[in-house]
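agent> fetching stored inputs for the farnesyl diphosphate docking request
agent> found them:
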Amino acid sequence: MPLDPERLPRHIAVIMDGNGRWARARGLPRAAGHKAGVDAVRRVVRAASELGLGALTLYAFSTENWGRPSAEVGALMRLLSWALGREALELERNNVRLGAIGRLSDLPAAARKDLAAAVERLGKNTGLRLTLALNYGARQEIVDAVNAGLADGVRRFDEQSLAQRLYTADLPELDLVVRTSGEMRLSNFLLWQAAYAEFVATPVLWPDFDREHLIAAIREFQKRDRRFGGLSTKA
Ligand code: FPP
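agent> prediction call returned; pasting tokens
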């Protein structure tokens, strides 16, 4: 069944999981799994652009990931710099608008610099909004939003005054969260934004995820009956 182009999710977020297991299954170091994960990122970003999706947010590094061995954290940060350099031209050609969310100021200096350069170069494009969640945690995001509001003199929050201070304030509404590798948790990812999003879990490990898996997740989304707490719109 082809996708209904009128009912594409406005914003898809992906919890990219399973790089380590992919590597272990091949007798490779974990870093090799992350490197293969970058190739999956490229395939999925390309597919998302071609499908005409509005926004794609990828969970690349959580605030909890600092707890991994320092060699793995270092490898992930170097991989980020390397991938941004390698992909910049194709992202530019595809008019991808790059952004990043998270406590970016706590990233290592080199990663911060390379990320800022890529966002500067690609941040004004008008196509797919690709957002990398880096040193991201949803609880921290909500705390940061509250503190930003207090600094602005807000004395009493409502949903709008809080949402407009989240890192995602200018992104479209989140419609679909995809998690790979069979796990069923949100893991501190976009907790506020996911309130009414559909959740699709796939057993596929992230390095094996490709265009067809993305399409399958969107097809699953299009089959769901989204009620937002109300009654079914289907007969
Ligand atoms: C989870 O797999 C994946 C991560 C913690 C990192 C995701 C990073 C990438 C895909 C590469 C860098 C991204 C960009 C955007 C350049 P895991 O290590 O937790 O896997 P496991 O659960 O099998 O051990």
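agent> quick read of the result: The chain has a mean pLDDT of 96.
agent> awaiting further instructions
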